[in-house]
Design a protein that fits this description.
The protein is an alpha+beta fold. It folds into two domains: about 40 residues, YefM-like fold (3-Layer(aba) Sandwich); about 45 residues. Helices cover about 65% and strands about 15% of the residues. The chain contains four helices and three strands; from the N terminus they run βαββααα. Strands 1-2-3 form a three-stranded mixed sheet, with helices on one face. The protein is elongated.
């Protein structure tokens, strides 16, 4: 479950918040001046994010190495074509939310 807490009350609620995150798998959005400032998530969520991020950057490096001699304009054109193809095949999030 996703919950919110403001930064001024975080200190007094930290122990129960950590219990919720660790044992109930809850996520907390920490707000400052009514705006999201940080998130507290279970460790496995954080570890998965780190692994996904690392894999993403490895893939970027592989693509860059494989295309080091490619014309930058051609690469950009291919990227834009792929982006448009994905957008056509995948309905927008707001459309899918309206259908619920």
């Amino acid at each position: 479950m996703e919950k919110s807490v403001n930064s001024s009350s975080l200190r007094s609620k930290l122990s129960p918040i950590l219990d919720d995150v660790q044992f109930n798998r809850d996520n907390y959005i920490i707000e400052r001046n009514g705006r999201p400032a940080a998130v507290i998530v279970p460790v496995n969520i954080y570890e998965n994010w780190k692994q996904s991020r690392q894999r993403f950057f490895e893939l970027v490096e592989e693509v860059q190495a494989a295309n080091k001699d490619a014309d930058p304009d051609e690469v950009m054109e291919l990227v834009l074509e792929a982006q448009q193809a994905v957008r056509v095949d995948k309905p927008s999030q707001s459309t899918s939310q309206k259908q619920r």
